[in-house]
């Protein structure tokens, strides 16, 4: 059977993109043909995928997305697929993988009247409504209960259309797949000595992920402690204004930016702590990657996966409404208390050994292919 996957942009280091690749690969491994429609593709192209780069030329994101949708619809009319699976919201999907928050809820909370008059709003609202409206046939693959509550609030979506997926962590992230001397080996490789604290933040879209909050927390540390802290920020984004913020706060030498790296599992083995104080995050797969790596976490409560940190007892969740002082205090406390970090790390490893944090691609493929046969 032919399964068409719709994804605006593919690059190797995004959480949504990694999930797409694993799900599509699992479908292909089960003997089905995978066709992928993208506006752009960065990185290695998997063998066996038919990747179609859709020509778009509009100046705005919403304009390009509309062009993409119309082009793909026309192509599918000429070259039908048995199932159309979307990783971005658009009309005509059989299955939608919901890695983002409810746009209608975000607008209701954050935007004013005049925003709703803009073409951008009309586009994104219409595309979301097409997926979630009552009476639509699209099956909805969800990551958290919070997402479901928001979508049902705005669209009265039928509950039977929602399918909650377990997480899908790459096996190479797990602590037990690292060498026994991983911490010392990878700290040496990255020139981090035994007296330094390595704090890690991983994720593209620095504004949304709260990189400014992490930098401010490092800057707020007592001087002697701050001098021993190195903050690695890894993700696909432009670091300019965040590097300027670090410099302005006197921690420019402490903060290092990297484009997406292939050695995140090594960095997690080397680090003392993961920071993820996001402003908005539907799930936050990096939180679970840290758990499986045995790496303590400090995160914001808005993250859909923040509850895993609380359940595992492997870090601290900063409650809403947000207070920067709470993050500052949590970071200082954790760095000053090795016994606390060790307990968090032990708890994380136990949770990684006893919970299903790995089967998302298989469960997603079951639903997609099961529907094909049904």
């Amino acid at each position: 059977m032919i399964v068409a996957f719709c994804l605006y942009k593919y690059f190797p280091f995004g959480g949504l993109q990694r999930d797409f690749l694993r799900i599509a690969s699992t479908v292909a491994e089960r003997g089905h043909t995978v066709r992928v429609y993208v506006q752009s593709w960065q990185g290695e192209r998997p063998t066996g995928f038919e990747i179609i780069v859709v020509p778009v030329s509009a100046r705005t994101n919403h304009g390009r997305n509309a062009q993409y949708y119309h082009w793909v619809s026309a192509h599918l009319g000429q070259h039908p697929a048995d199932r159309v699976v979307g990783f971005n919201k658009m009309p005509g999907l059989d299955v939608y993988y919901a890695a983002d928050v409810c746009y209608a809820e975000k607008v209701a909370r954050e935007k004013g009247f005049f925003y709703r008059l803009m073409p951008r709003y009309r586009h994104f609202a219409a595309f979301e409504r097409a997926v979630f409206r009552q009476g639509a046939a699209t099956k909805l693959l969800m990551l958290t209960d919070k997402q479901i509550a928001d979508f049902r609030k705005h669209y009265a979506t039928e509950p039977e259309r929602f399918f909650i997926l377990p997480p899908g962590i790459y096996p190479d992230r797990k602590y037990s797949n690292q060498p026994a001397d991983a911490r010392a080996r990878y700290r040496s490789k990255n020139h981090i000595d035994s007296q330094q604290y390595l704090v890690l933040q991983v994720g593209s879209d620095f504004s949304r992920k709260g990189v400014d909050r992490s930098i401010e927390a490092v800057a707020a540390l007592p001087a002697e402690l701050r001098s021993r802290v190195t903050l690695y920020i890894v993700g696909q984004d432009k670091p300019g204004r965040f590097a300027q913020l670090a410099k302005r706060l006197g921690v420019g030498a402490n903060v290092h930016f990297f484009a997406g790296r292939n050695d995140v599992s090594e960095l997690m083995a080397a680090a003392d702590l993961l920071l993820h104080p996001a402003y908005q995050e539907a799930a936050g797969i990096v939180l679970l990657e840290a758990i499986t790596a045995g790496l303590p976490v400090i995160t914001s409560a808005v993250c859909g996966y923040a509850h895993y940190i609380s359940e595992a007892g492997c870090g601290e969740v900063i409650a809403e409404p947000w207070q920067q002082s709470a993050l500052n205090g949590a970071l200082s406390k954790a760095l000053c208390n090795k016994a606390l970090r060790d307990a968090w790390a032990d708890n994380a490893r136990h949770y990684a050994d006893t919970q299903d944090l790995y089967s998302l691609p298989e469960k997603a493929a079951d639903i997609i292919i099961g529907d094909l046969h049904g």
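The chain has a mean pLDDT of 96. The domain at 2-166+359-373 is CATH 3.40.50.2000 (Rossmann fold).
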